[in-house]
Amino acid sequence: MAQFGDVSQKSALHPKPKGLTLQYGTAGFRTAADRLDHVMFRMGLLATLRSKQTKSTIGVMVTASHNPEEDNGVKLIDPMGEMVTPAWEGYATQLANADQDDLCAVLKGIVESEGVDMAQAASVIIGRDTRPSSENLSRAVLDGISCLEGHSHDFGLVTTPQLHYMVLCRNTGGCYGDATTQGYYEKLSKAFAELTKNAPKRTLDQKMLLVDGANGIGALKMKEMEAFLKPELQVEIFNDGSSGRLNYECGADYVKVQQKAPRGMQMSPGQRCCSFDGDADRIVYYYSDSNARFHLLDGDKIATLISTYLKELLTEAGLNLQVAVVQTAYANGSSTRYLEDVMKVTVCCTKTGVKHLHHEAQKFDVGVYFEANGHGTVLFSKKAEEQIRELAEESNASDEKKRAGKLLESTVNLINQATGDAISDMLLIEAMLAVRGMSVQDWASIYTDLPNRQLKVKVADRRVIETTDAERRAVTPAGLQDSIDALVKKYRQARAFVRPSGTEDVVRVYAEADTQESVDALAHQVSLAVY
Ligand code: NG1
Ligand code: ZN
């Protein structure tokens, strides 16, 4: 198999631990960092094949997001900045689990099935988070790329969404923006300035935002971007990685699941705060009131704010475009009710994992998608973008319509349509609050969350649980769903479901009900039913 050059020889330098089987899950491969060297090398090989096949630049991001610092992971980014397609996820799993001696045969199988032209040039760009293990692991990816003579560019330390953005820029001939971090900062800060021009009377206090960087890459990148945003946004960064551990008692996942402020954040009452996760693709907001009560504004609240803002602007602009919100089973019941009954927007529910939400959102003129944990973005169809840009340029439109058109145009420019992006989402939220003259308290009171609880349960084999109806019901093991239904019936406004995690070796339990006491009891009882 001469076409695979020195794959056999080079792969021996990245040996697979005996007996290790991994699966390309909702966010690629994720496990303890010391088990991943061979996977990285092999993902370098696979990304090179994918690049040859699509004749486009492919991205490889080394990160384990919100997982503990000692974990790591890798995911592949397809030409339009989206997650790699399911067929290639399957190849990724095959390749990661192949025995050393079978590696070339598996590669050959992929080349044949996908009709990859091995003579085609390949281009792969890579990035990594701040984990101590990420640098060596990203070198293993580069080894894989060079082994198949692919061209590579290492962006080094970048957020996951920045790498998605670079892939999209590179494959659209620069139309989306410049494929550099500088280009990213310039594009976003320009759109942000255009939007905040419409809110000239903001006080210094209103321009102030506290950011928890989860001791990760988001903190680093916010420091780089700070100067671009002044004076319209003054950020104070906590958990900037100078002392604490990545994601330890901080970051978006911690704040969302624990429903409390991160370690080290010095919040005064009413102060707007936000937390990024470890690779800065998720964001949640919060504040504490004068009674020291903590208020969380999660992905559902963000989706509501965005869809309300866009709907209003589209109406003012006189554009007849359909706005839909895509959620998962974890969306708070109050948010779904508010969106459907009050906002009258279409709401869809998909399986957990951004790729599912992204795919669904593509079906609408304007698809707002957010996981409750704060991962999400907005997708505009070609038709929607064209109508918005035309209106913004239209000289005969009324002042009101033109203003709405311009605001919509800058909003499109501010959003990272490749993927959920904490920095872009943060700027969008700050701009929307400014333009609409809303405080964080106004935003929080749009609707009241139903008390909810998430728990993790360790079981021998989490895969015995199979689900249906966008993961809201368990089909196996027999009897489990009946037990959950019986428990739910005991409480008011209650709902509960269980599903195997795609990123951790646990079963996740989610419950909501009318009071915190009830929901805690319900979640606990459901977790006992899982054993
Ligand atoms: P799993 O571990 O499959 O629940 C978690 C999140 C997902 C998604 C992925 C990828 C929850 C309940 N689950 O997946 O929404 O973000 O990680 O990071 O938040
Ligand atoms: Zn993340």
TrEMBL record:
Domain Alpha-D-phosphohexomutase C-terminal: 456-527
Residues given in the record as Mg(2+) binding sites: S65, D277, D279, D281
GO molecular function, a single term: phosphoacetylglucosamine mutase activity
Domain of life according to the entry: Eukaryota
Positions bound to substrate: E371, A372, N373, R499, P500, S501, G502, T503, R508
Reactions mediated catalytically: N-acetyl-alpha-D-glucosamine 1-phosphate = N-acetyl-D-glucosamine 6-phosphate
Described function: Catalyzes the conversion of GlcNAc-6-P into GlcNAc-1-P during the synthesis of uridine diphosphate/UDP-GlcNAc, a sugar nucleotide critical to multiple glycosylation pathways including protein N- and O-glycosylation.
Official protein name in the record: Phosphoacetylglucosamine mutase
High-level lineage: Eukaryota, Metazoa, Chordata, Craniata, Vertebrata
